[in-house]
Amino acid sequence: MTSIAAINPVNFQNVNFRANENQQTTKNSQDYQVLTYETEGSTGKKWGVGTASFFIPGLGQAINGQWGKGIGFFLGEVVTEILASFALAKPAIGITGVVLNLGNRIWSVTDAVKNAKSEVQQIVPKNQTEENKFSATA
Length: 138
Description:
Blueprint: E1 3-9, E2 14-18, E3 24-28, E4 32-40, H1 43-55, H2 59-63, H3 67-84, H4 91-114, E5 117-125
Antiparallel strand pairs: 1-4, 2-3, 4-5
Helix pairs in contact: 1-4, 3-4
């Protein structure tokens, strides 16, 4: 699903647009605007944030811009590691810590992959209608 994050006016002098391979035209910047919108993340980004969250829970969320979630998953990692360190002294607490740690890691990876987004910018004519903004080629 595509959603428009912001519509920014363009502040550039002249932009060269290639109409076809042999023809190049120059347009004035007042006729165009930059659309910034988010799309579902690419497979590469999903693998990247998932791997980051596997090794350091919360890092994938931070890469996705979800700092609060990232800090939460990282603090969950710290707490469950502390609980797991009691494995020799108090086995019940240690086993609980290990299970919770594994759950925190799995949750962190799946959440990071699910929320991976890519930001895309596109130059479109200002007079273009809402329906065909995303079909324009620049």
